[in-house]
Amino acid sequence: SVSPRQPAPGGGGGGGPSPCGPGGGGRAKGLKDIRIDEEVKIAVNIALERFRYGDQREMEFPSSLTSTERAFIHRLSQSLGLVSKSKGKGANRYLTVKKKDGSETAHAMMTCNLTHNTKHAVRSLIQRF
């Protein structure tokens, strides 16, 4: 069983649904405790997923983020097997996200081979939405 974590200092509490997507499982851990705009959650989730599967080793988020948004990114990064760190002080505080070395991130990726019929069924379901 997964127990919720306390929000980071200055962070919000209680709130909306957690993001979902490839990666599954423990991803919701603590994310629902942080209240930020759904648009920000979606944008951060997409950015981290692209980063996770891309060639970059490090990614930087701007100093314009609030402490609550940074807390969300820290928790989401951790749940995706990434390492995050805030740097700087006050209005100049920003966040970097790095990939863990080799074998640790390799375990986070999984492939799934589907038959032709299964691919067709998935496509038709997706097109309905």
UniProtKB/TrEMBL annotation:
Region annotation (Disordered) ranges: 1-32
InterPro entries: R3H_DEXH_helicase (IPR034083), R3H_dom (IPR001374), R3H_dom_sf (IPR036867)
Entry keywords, A to Z: ATP-binding, Helicase, Hydrolase, Nucleotide-binding
Domain R3H: 33-101
Residue stretches of biased makeup (Gly residues): 9-28
Domain of life: Eukaryota
GO molecular function terms noted in the UniProt entry: helicase activity; hydrolase activity; nucleic acid binding
Pfam families: R3H
Protein name according to UniProt: Putative ATP-dependent RNA helicase YTHDC2
Organism encoding this protein: Macaca mulatta
